[in-house]
Amino acid sequence: MFLGLTVTGILxxxxxxxxxxxxxxxxQNITTTVQFGQLMRNMHRWMAHAMVILVFLHMMRVFYTGxxxxxxxxxxxxxxxxxxxxxxxxxxxxxxxxxxxxFWAITVGSEIAGSAPVLGPKTASGCSAASKSALTPSxxxxxxxxxxxxxxxxxxxxxxxGASAATAVSPGRSRPGLHTRLREGNAWQPQS
Length: 192
Fold this sequence. Notes:
Elements: H1 2-13, H2 23-32, H3 37-65, H4 73-95, H5 100-114, H6 120-134, H7 178-184
Helix pairs in contact: 1-3, 2-3, 3-4, 5-6
């Protein structure tokens, strides 16, 4: 699994530039114009999902069978470190397309990290201003981005009638989405 992820990741790396401005367009380019690009991207994504599931199932098996007991305590510690590393790599890979899904994943992830007991407030202070600015309408040129956490949507995202990506209504929808209702403070009120 790891070898397949490495090979497909290297092949995808030839066409992807990790910048906020180009990430979404590069993913679109890989999916639509690169020969076998969509296949390669989907293989990489499904192998990543499978690796997370398999590593988690393996750790559960080791735990429930008691294979972590002496003399294998060190193996257990290494396994837990690898499990956390697998989760972190999966999360960072989830963010690379920098689409709406990735944007809200980093927003929620930074909020979760901000609730940690010791390092949480320091983590949250780096992303709080940028996350809050994404919930208010702003133009692409005046978006606030923090050097610690780039939490604003890129200007390459499509929007409707000049609105920012955070306030855009999806085509075919006659009412604002949850992110717009969150910004306006009425997320949990029923819509008419």
